[in-house]
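To whoever is on call:

I kicked off a structure prediction for a single chain this morning and the downstream step that reads the tokens threw a length-mismatch warning. I double-checked the sequence; it's 279 residues and nothing unusual in it as far as I can see. Pasting both halves so you can look.
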Amino acid sequence: MKHDFDQHVERRATDSIKWSMHGEDVLPMWVADMDFVAPESVLRMLRERVDEGVFGYGRAMPELIEVICERLKRLYAWEVTPGEIVFFPGLVSSINVACRATGRRGDGVLMQPPVYFPFLTAATNQGRRQHFAPLTLAPSGRVIRYEIDYDAFEAAISPRTCLFLLSNPHNPTGQLYKRDDLERMADICLRHDLVICSDEIHCELLLDDRLHQPIATLSPEIAERCITLMAPSKTFNLAGLRCGFAIIQNPELRARMETGAAGIVPGGGNVMGYAAALA
């Protein structure tokens, strides 16, 4: 089904955080919240869920988990089992739990600025220190590009660095890392025994027929230390419905994430978010 991306939706003077943060003379491009209506298949599923008339506590339905596993296999040749998927309300809560579940207070979290600002606060919220390996600006004509300085990347790691927060595709630079980039970063993380928490929620917003590769798919050895975060929120503009998930194939690491979330992060998503995600 084709989608009408020319349909205007007036969101000023509504409950939109995006459009109420600044004055009317500002175009609010500070947040990944698109001004398109949701796909009709999503709207239809939500209407059916509303018509049921009951909104009690819910869990991700087996059909949704099956669809996620099938999609990961089809898009990335990635074999994921239902038990390796943990649902979260979204990316920000997930990276906070990852910081909480990895290391101890005072340990370091490696990140690559300029980066999505909740990465910065996730570390400090959980009593961790920010360890920066800045990306290097490398413009090519009128194209703004960033590259990884691998020497700086490794130099930023201290004996107390325990976690690497990766953004791939990178937010906000748009950098889609190639396999060689991912392998070099993963190799450094292996040598320094870092857990990798990879934000991949923009993985289906690609240009020029390029392909995304989850870092966890490089090898079973890398997968053992990966927390991969995905969601339909960016691709289908469903962020307000609060439904994301983590793929964690290491049982011990998965248990630490579940313990870190217990009693603080609501279990999984919500009934409307699950319905929209399935659609």
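Update from on-call: the warning came from a stale cache, not from the record. Cleared it. Sanity check on the structure: The radius of gyration is 19 Å.
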